[in-house]
Design brief:
2 domains; four-stranded parallel sheet; globular; TIM Barrel; alpha/beta; uronate isomerase, domain 2, chain A; three-stranded parallel sheet; homotrimer
Chain lengths: ~500, ~500, ~500
């Protein structure tokens, strides 16, 4: 490899510089650095594990194309997505174009562009993850730059061709104890079944995500409903059959190891409709006559219904609120969703969650984990709610806030009011499999540093801090997602 | 007492670990650590002081039952309030149940449950206060745990039986210079009168709180209005008589040493109604026909009226906004209010306070102290308002934010824009009498540490910091609440 | 001068006390401390530079009267503006009064009042700027206090009388590379023309501010429209002629060196109207029949039109949102605008900017710089938007947030998500010319300290930090405002 600058990754990185605090942070971090990873929420493709010979493709296919954190920042500086290997979904690319994009020459051009702009990631969490992926996982010694870009490309490509870099091998190397994928309500979980059938022992669990069959304003809704009908054996022709089909699939997901569901909505509004009204709305949706008001009411109602089902079947309910999807319409039309153009909005929880929490929040069978992109709600609404209702817990800092400062703000805003045990540790929430260790490592480091800060200010003693770092790094996530209860396999 | 771990309470606790900063923080803290306590806003029961032989009851009655900060967190982990000595208000408990709950065996069970879950308070302000109460006030050497719970119960119970632990004795030991209680508009202040009549010199002042006679949607409203009629001698049958009765009682409170009023509302909306409209709404309320809109208008109007009265009679007006009371309806029905289920909501001040500030904000006779639970309003709305209007000052971090991080965020967000002298020092706002020294001590420590941070960054010099810590710890509260003007006794 | 306390201004002021961090901060700061100042947004009066013999007047006329940051805080403590040399705009002052106010005796009284209350600025950014202005620029060795007030007045007055303290001399001494003023759409830029004609080489550029001709609810609107007609030669009698006149003037401003426009609005709402509707609203405005809804629609529409023009003519578009102007109505009636009574309000950007960003946000010719007073929007809305749209960048911390903590919150909330290169460095935004070096110096210090914090936590290495401090102190502002492209002179 050409000689360049090496990475700057000392063992006490991301810790406060105060020597007393740093020493304690390092002690706490080292106590959990090698614990297995609990990954209860994420978007890794299970197909990576169903075939023991699956590979990650090229460096570009591994590190750039699937990671909207990466290409969003390049796009914001005027780099067109077409130059980054992202394929338009609008059919404007010819077969020839596609074939060219798969070629090494094009891939190398993308990589060069990435290297030329690598300075843009300075001080960003993506920069941290990339450094860790390149150095720790892929063995790249030098910082990426324009001059060494092609040599590093060669190095990574060679690594990815070796058996040690197949997904299952990395799963073991990363010391993942259990990982949950995210799967549509109508998914037959064929990859999960194949994993089981293969005899491989990796603990890969599905998560039940019903959004696509609830959100009837999306173009793909009817297709999702059909898939649900097929998978469940309950033909969904009504609200009543929708509920039956969902209940059937939840039970099926449970047999496949699922312990949780996941639901997203722009608003946190919850509200119960009379059954006849829910049915009427659903019929309007089936006939293409539903309104935006219908959609809001139905979303609010289905959150209530999901809570009811969770209370009955014990699946932990996750709720993510506040992302305005596909904000950039031209980009959406050309490239589809998940292109780095989802923008958070203000969210209200105190009033919106009240109906749901009043009905199910005191029930010991129910567990609700809430995520937000609106940090102003941490200390004002979410920590007080989690610090009162037995059923509610607060999820880790989400998405844009899964960063050193984001984590610090979370820990400092939430813990005093909610108490540590009303939170659920960490999850990586990523489709970039290679970034998983880096994300957990960053969380463990920031938590160790936060706890060291409490120790040097005598807020807790060292013995307590050692308990708390175990909670944050491993135990809380395992308990909150019922991974400690054994699967139903 | 069984041998356990001792508390971790070094003299420089809660300070930043940087040696330079810590040294200055300690110097500043020590300069004010023994100053008398000014307690201008709180909820201590004056009955504790009217009878010189009053006691605090059992350890559970002292530390758990009256402190919703404590039992809220236990409840959030699934501990039913019934197991914590909280008495349902819905009449479902028999006399026998009540008698059993007063028994030592039950009290010890509650205490054990508290000790078993004591780890939940790690890193919370309640954990800080409890450590201070147990160690500093009650002489408990060991950290509370499951094994030593009963021995510590015995120890505390023995202390509480001694004369040194009667309320008046602790009032002196805590070095309280003056304390204000909170009292309904229709209160005859019998306990305050008894304190005066007793010849005891403790300075206990009432605060005029008219909420119960304004908020006509509350079930207890009519009873509160009747009490106001009785106490004032003005039979309240109209808006006009309501105002007369309130004015009468404010004058009476002043003769009893009151220097301030306190008003709370969900929203900060202020607006003047024409008198005829205020009268019409009040008549609808008397006839049980008032609407939610009536209630909003009347609340807004009565804030204006209170400001007018304060401008005329000189009582400092306190205004607390943003708490959604009794969020958990099932809990409210069974146990009543103040059960740890009040949840903050977003608040708007710039537009809502404009009518009030435009009418009275430039008047040198008027003083308004505003409190919020919405920290996003600190730097955006409240500090700019307090930094402009002569009449407006900003109250200390309130409720959930009366914590190390809450105080830090307040100091860092407010002071640059409002300036120190548009704030009013500290108040403890508590009904847990034993926690008062701990709360003031924490404020003094966090302020000393904040000022030390300014000194080491050369924002202020040490001489200025010494002035500012006197302001924060003692002088600002005394001035803002007119405790420096002598009582009207 | 009477002997008093000297200022406390060590070379490493405003840096974190950790020795490792402080050392790096000082190194980074020193690398940029003497770089020229780029001042792309501000409110300095160009008349200061058009006449080579212009002076700043008395100490009071220099430091107090033009600085609402200063007199706002004095006013909030009950000092009437009349006692601070502020002239009522309501015609209640006689000629005799005015003449008295210009007299030395009155000026000295104001200065004494300022000195007596100088403690109010402790810990505020204004306190920092004043210390720097008095010490660094004016050579005042002692801290201002009641005793030395008059001696310091003499000292400053003497300085201001010397040629070294004329505006052009200070422009050179301050090492200002380029400064942009803010000028109404109908301004003929006579002072800018005079500067050019004088042969003086100072780079003073106008900025095109069309607010006064758009905001038809303001009393001075028609006068502003007439000025626009006169200046442009296009008689504005319709929406169509308004657009033509604006386009004409933008072109004229460009010939005078302008590279940017500036627009303000209470809300960030953007929306395109059909031309006929825009025309209809404008006609209603001309006939005095426009409504508040008209005004909102037209403001939203004109933001879109400005973006279109910027896309076509290349002027960088600045947008400031969220200030409720003239909150204190009595003060406004007596003294007019800019009296320290503008109060921020909550702002929404995700939905409001969507129409504008969808239409122009992907266009490489367009550049939009957004400012906010609502810090809650930094990490939630603005950083994600700037981190996606190629055209959008985020302006520096604005107004109340142009302070040590305000800058820190900005850097910590914005940079992780937006990335440094989607921000635009600093601007001083001031009409107080003397405070310009202090403001830039504070920014450079806080940025150096922030970067040092990243280095000691190994977020970036020292080499990267050196690049980044050059960006923050100089390069980003120069690039974002196209000062690197040469003028059109």
């Amino acid at each position: 490899m050409t000689k360049g600058k090496t990475w700057f990754l000392p063992p006490d990185r991301y810790f406060d510089p105060d020597p007393a605090r740093r020493g304690i942070a390092l002690e706490l971090y080292q106590a959990v650095a090698d614990l297995p990873l609990i990954c209860p929420h994420g978007h890794v493709n299970p197909a990576l594990f169903s075939d023991q010979n699956a590979t990650f493709g090229s460096p570009v296919e591994l590190l750039i194309i699937p990671d909207h954190y990466v290409f969003r920042l390049l796009y914001s500086h005027g780099v067109p997505l077409e130059k980054l290997g992202i394929r338009p979904a609008d059919g404007t690319l010819t077969e020839e174009d596609h074939s060219r994009q798969s070629g090494t020459e094009y891939q190398r051009q993308v990589w060069q562009l990435f290297a030329d702009n690598f300075y843009l990631f300075r001080g960003t969490p993506t920069g941290i993850w990339l450094a860790s992926e390149l150095h720790d996982v892929l063995g790249v010694d030098e910082k990426l730059n324009s001059a060494n870009a092609q040599a590093i490309y060669d190095h990574i490509a060679a690594r990815l061709a070796s058996p040690e870099f197949r997904p299952r091998a990395l799963f073991d190397r990363f010391h993942i104890e259990a990982i949950a994928t995210t799967d549509g309500a109508g998914d037959r979980l064929l990859h999960h079944q194949a994993i089981r059938a293969s005899g491989w022992q990796g603990d890969i669990r599905p998560t039940f995500r019903p959004d696509a069959v609830i959100n009837f304003l999306l173009p793909a809704w009817r297709k999702a409903v059909d898939a649900l009908s097929d998978a469940s054996g309950v033909t969904v022709v009504s609200y009543a059959t929708l509920i039956r089909a969902l209940e059937h699939q939840r039970a099926f997901f449970k047999t496949m190891g699922a312990t949780a569901t996941d639901q997203g909505a722009q608003s946190a509004y919850t509200d119960s409709l009379p059954i006849q009204e829910a049915e009427a709305i659903f019929q309007r949706a089936l006939h293409g006559e539903a309104t935006v008001e219908d959609w809001q009411s139905f979303t609010a109602h289905m959150l209530m219904e999901s809570a009811r089902m969770s209370t009955e079947d014990g699946l932990v309910m996750q709720f993510h609120a506040g992302s305005v999807r596909n904000h950039n319409e031209a980009l959406f039309e050309r490239f589809g969703p998940d292109m780095g153009a989802d923008i958070p909005e203000r969210n209200e929880f105190t009033h919106n969650l009240r109906p749901l929490l009043n009905r199910f929040g005191n029930d010991p069978r129910f567990s609700l984990i809430v995520f937000t992109l609106d940090e102003a709600a941490y200390s004002r609404e979410l920590a007080p709610l989690a610090g009162h209702y037995p059923a509610m817990k607060l999820g880790p800092p989400w998405w844009f806030h899964d960063s050193p400062n984001g984590m610090r703000r979370y820990l400092e805003s939430v813990m005093e009011t909610a108490g540590l045990h009303n939170t659920v540790g960490f999850n990586d929430d990523t489709r970039a499999f290679l970034s998983i260790p880096a994300r957990h490592d960053l969380w463990r480091r920031i938590c160790a540093d936060w706890l060291a800060g409490l120790v040097v200010r005598s807020m807790v003693d060292l013995e307590e801090a050692h308990e708390m770092i175990q909670d944050l790094a491993y135990r809380l996530a395992r308990q909150a997602y019922h991974f400690d209860r054994g699967g139903q396999q």
